[in-house]
Design brief:
single chain; mainly beta; 3-stranded antiparallel sheet; 51 strands; 29% strand
């Protein structure tokens, strides 16, 4: 047999999930993984029905789809291998055992591969696998080489080669490896010595080292790149230190002592003054005899002196006009700040949005919306991240191949049946599931015409013709019909049909004791009948004057003269409508239609549709309750869904039931009761577009809020802050800009940026 490597798994066994016919080349199994989680790989030998002496079959699987658990044989020669119960005609039912066992084929495969390397006796290698070539000229050969070839080639290369050497200076040299010796010599400050298979390079005594005590002669030390420590006055050369600066020349390069510097500076300060200016006026302060005073301005600037430190600051209360940007911290206990904040780094008091704390320092992640969180995501949405099982409307399967058929293999369980072979049909197995089977065929020896048929024969091409099909066979018993005929049955006989023409205007099919017949309607007294093509018109004769109206059941009133009125009695009021719709229309301009329910006009609910004065457009829908009592909340409206109260409308407004929320386009507008009044609860408003949110009051533009911030219109006014703060209130730098004044601030202002005060 041909040598080939086949794969093995210890103790691998599974079962078929579908039937394998005698010529099938694919099979599906329940598992392709053994008990040790090893996956079956091709090529491999398997045994089908291994415990059956009459149905055992050895096959060679050539490819495996681990996803669909499908095993494939590339041709029929991979079936009915040695060890099978037969050489053809074997089939295997769904559920049959599939096992991997040690086989003759495995041993033969190994022997065949070994025989390609070692001779049959096991005494020598196969010489065809080696190449004896002294010069190694074949650079594409894949065979091994002999000892002789390696030695000859290496000896040749060493004799012919030399060692090329280059240095920082001088020309390159070449050392013949077969006849010359490389000499390694030391240069200035370097000694070389030889030892066992090595050359040692060392620094000689002329080189100063970090650990040595050599004296430096004619050397330059770069102080910028080195540190010189422990220098004292007595280490300085005479003439380096100058103790008297009174007559020092401008070109003198000596170093001054501290005494010399003090003496000189004192003399210079005594003779100097300090020039100061405010931009327009200049003055001088004699540093030896005069004092410069720095004075603040009431309610604008405060000046304080402690030891040698001047402190210039703003008083706790400032009244001034500010023009331009104000950066830094602004604090106070009263007054107001108006304008727009360009930036904000943090809110003094954090607020919750959708249950997430927000202080302005970072973006908000809403759990269950744009991050994982505590929102309820159970049910079908959660199942979509995994295989959707049958109880959720899925299949429980992850992949299919062309031709697969789904069938119920159990309660709430779907299974796949792979496509069958050409000519096979579906049948129900003994186990009650569908399977493919080869149709049973045979030779037809004759065709006999049965009831309603004629023809037939016992040889050649046989023809069958349909005779006139009787009523008993579902036919009419006739072979032709007149134009515009209908088929009826009469007393002419049992199971007998006849064709009757209906070609005159107004003809009808009318039943009778003698059977149905075609006829036209006959006009009686006071009635006229006009027959047309496909239509019949019945008209009543002219009537006379009404001489009296009598109230019938459920009505009262009536009369014999004048305008007669009929009234529905109270007992006839509608108390219930069962089945169908109640529709109230009035096809007229300005037709206001209303529906009233209750005990009286003062104790009722009115639903009213108001139409335009010159059209039929529903301009307004009114829901109105009326009560005779002035008690609060009488006539309130309660909205129930699934018999559960959702919201109530009463004198106090609209009250949403506890635990519920309003939503806009699926986005909740959350908050507890009073959230839009007290401001103590979360309120989220999202429109999902970058253009922002537009605010109107009484159809007047008030503000626009977009990604650039909040912009108030003239009608919107200004932002005002009336919250009482601590005596000292700090605002971080670059928090925002005040674009308008005047501003009155009471308290301490700590300025971390630039402030313009006018």
């Amino acid at each position: 047999m041909t040598a080939q490597e086949t794969n093995l798994l210890n103790a691998f066994e599974t079962t078929l999930t579908g039937t394998i016919g005698a010529s099938d080349l694919t099979m599906t199994v329940n598992s392709v993984v053994d008990s040790a989680s090893n996956t079956l790989t091709a090529p491999c030998y398997l045994v089908l029905n291994p415990d059956s002496a009459t149905n055992r079959e050895v096959v060679l699987v050539t490819s495996i789809n681990s996803g669909t658990k499908t095993l494939t044989l590339d041709n029929v020669n991979k079936r009915y291998l040695t060890g099978s119960a037969a050489t053809s005609g074997l089939s295997h039912a769904s559920g049959s055992v599939v096992r991997m066992s040690p086989l003759q084929q495995h041993i033969e495969d190994i022997n065949d591969r070994v025989d390609t390397v070692i001779n049959a006796a096991g005494t020598a290698l196969n010489t065809t696998l080696f190449l004896d070539e002294d010069d190694m000229t074949s650079n594409s050969a894949t065979k091994g080489v002999t000892q002789q070839s390696v030695k000859a080639y290496v000896d040749t290369q060493l004799t012919a080669e030399d060692l090329d050497i280059s240095a920082d200076s001088g020309s390159n040299i070449a050392i013949d490896l077969d006849s010359e010796v490389l000499d390694l010599e030391g240069g200035t400050g370097i000694d070389t010595t030889t030892g066992t298979n090595k050359v040692t390079f060392a620094i000689d005594s002329t080189v100063a080292t970090l650990a040595g005590s050599q004296a430096l002669t004619n050397k330059t030390i770069d102080v910028d790149s080195n540190t010189v420590s422990n220098i004292e006055v007595d280490n300085l050369k005479s003439g380096v230190l100058d103790t008297d600066l009174s007559s020092t020349a401008g070109t003198d390069t000596t170093l001054p002592s501290a005494k010399a510097v003090k003496t000189y500076v004192d003399a210079q300060v005594t003779a100097e003054d300090l020039d100061i200016t405010d931009g327009s006026t200049t003055s001088a302060v004699d540093l030896d005899s005069q004092t410069m005073t720095i004075q603040g301005t009431s309610n604008e600037v405060e000046v304080a002196l402690s030891s040698q430190t001047f402190t210039i600051g703003l008083p706790s209360s400032i009244t001034a006009n500010l023009v331009g940007n104000v950066t830094g911290n602004v604090s106070g206990t009263s007054g107001s700040t108006t304008g727009n904040a360009a930036t904000a780094t943090a809110l003094e008091t954090a607020r919750n949005i959708g249950g997430v704390s927000f202080d302005g320092t970072g973006n908000i992640d809403l759990p269950g919306v744009n991050t994982a969180g505590n929102q309820n995501t159970s049910g079908t949405a959660a199942d979509l991240s995994a295989t959707l099982d049958e109880t959720k409307g899925g299949t429980g399967l992850t992949s299919f191949t062309t031709g697969d058929i789904l069938y119920a293999s159990g309660s709430n369980t779907l299974a796949k049946l792979s496509i069958g072979s050409s000519g096979q049909t579906l049948q129900v197995s003994s186990g009650g599931i569908v399977e493919w089977a080869t149709a049973t065929t045979g030779d037809i020896t004759g065709v006999t015409a049965g009831t309603g048929l004629s023809g037939g024969g016992t040889s050649g091409t046989v023809t069958l013709n349909v005779d006139s099909l009787a009523v008993a066979q579902g036919g009419t018993g006739a072979t032709s019909f007149a134009d515009k005929s209908v088929i009826i049955t009469q007393d002419s006989g049992t199971d007998t049909l006849a064709a009757v023409a209906m070609d005159a205007d107004g003809e009808l099919l009318i039943g009778g004791t003698s059977g149905p017949a075609v006829a036209t309607l006959t006009a009686g007294t006071g009635v006229t009948i006009t027959n047309a093509d496909g239509a019949i018109t019945i008209a009543a004769p002219d009537v006379g004057d009404i001489t009296g109206v009598t109230a019938g059941t459920g009505l009262s009133g009536g009369g014999t003269t004048g305008a007669v009125t009929l009234n529905v009695e109270t007992s006839q009021n509608i108390t219930a409508l069962t089945g169908g719709d109640l529709t109230i229309y009035e096809d007229a301009n300005n037709a206001d239609v209303s529906l009233k329910m209750g005990t009286s006009a003062t104790e009722s609910l009115t639903i009213e549709v108001l139409n335009g004065g010159s059209n039929k457009t529903a301009e307004q829908i009114n829901f109105t309750t009326a009560t005779a009592s002035g008690t609060a909340d009488h006539g309130k409206m309660v909205f129930n869904v699934d018999e559960t109260t959702i919201a109530t409308i009463d004198d106090g407004g609209i009250d949403l039931a506890s635990g519920l929320e309003f939503s806009v386009n699926g986005t909740a507008i959350g908050g507890s009761a009073g959230a839009l009044i007290d401001g103590d609860s979360d309120f989220t408003l999202t429109d999902g577009v970058a253009s922002g949110i537009h605010y109107e009051l009484d159809n007047t533009d008030m503000a626009d809020w977009n990604q650039a911030g909040v912009v108030l219109t003239t009608a919107g006014g200004i932002f005002q802050h009336h919250q009482t703060q601590a005596a000292t209130y700090s605002v971080p730098a670059n928090t925002g800009a005040v674009l308008a004044g005047p501003i009155t601030i009471t308290g301490t202002i700590t300025n971390n940026g630039t402030m313009v005060v006018i």
